[in-house]
User: What shape does this take?
Amino acid sequence: MTWHVSEEDLRAYARGELAPPVLWAADTHLGACARCRAVLADVGDPAALDAGWDRLDAELDAPRPGWAESLLVRAGVPDHIARLLAATPVLRGSWLGAVLAVLGMSVWVSSALRTTDSPTLFLALAPLLPLAGVALSFGPVLDPTYEMAVVAPLHGFRLLMIRTVAVLVAGLGLDGLATLALPGYGLRALAWLLPALALTATGLALTPRLGPVCAPSLVGGAWIALLLAARAADPGVDGALVPFTALGQGVAAAVAALATGLLFAGRDGFDRFLGRAV
Assistant: This one.
């Protein structure tokens, strides 16, 4: 090799001041010339070189966001909130697959054994899925990012609402898609919606006092007990259970509204629940 980069150009290269097209020629030449690389190492600033390696290491070691997190960031969601949403356990494939399996089974049973005016099994299970999703998405037991969520610069109530909205969008969306597989029942197949909102809001309102697992478990148990009591009071198979009638839907709407009000009134309790200073 008969041509080498001059020492003056190498100094400019080290300072980041070398302009094209000389810069391009120097880049190509340095890749094949050990002599010029040695001169560059001598004339370069060691502190700047170490800082450059540190930046490179930090970039290489930084976690790569998944498709969901990248989509949220592109939609305008702040980085730290997108990371908390993407790490929500119930938004993973295993949870969503389990939910689809439960809904698919209940839809199949309701279609194959249509003996009532409403798909009772589907309507009984659909409200429990968003409630279970909220229980699994906020707490130290099943959330691998719980410590990160606790120290996130967010009010505890806001953090809960961010996770809850994500869970409800996923859970209610899947319930809605399953409802489309029951066209023969008409609007009666949507009787799960208000109970789902009522159960979720009640579970959230009780969370600061009972915890993120106990509260939804208690609410879910009460829902199952209510359905069993309704079945015992009306053992016939020709009509819908009381919770899925117009009266039951009105009660569910009232419970959802009341629980939402109590949830908002006790929003500061989530900071105490997380052990934060209010």
Remarks:
- The chain is about 70% helix and 0% strand.
- The two ends are 70 Å apart (CA to CA).
- The mean pLDDT is 78.
- The longest helix spans residues 156-179.
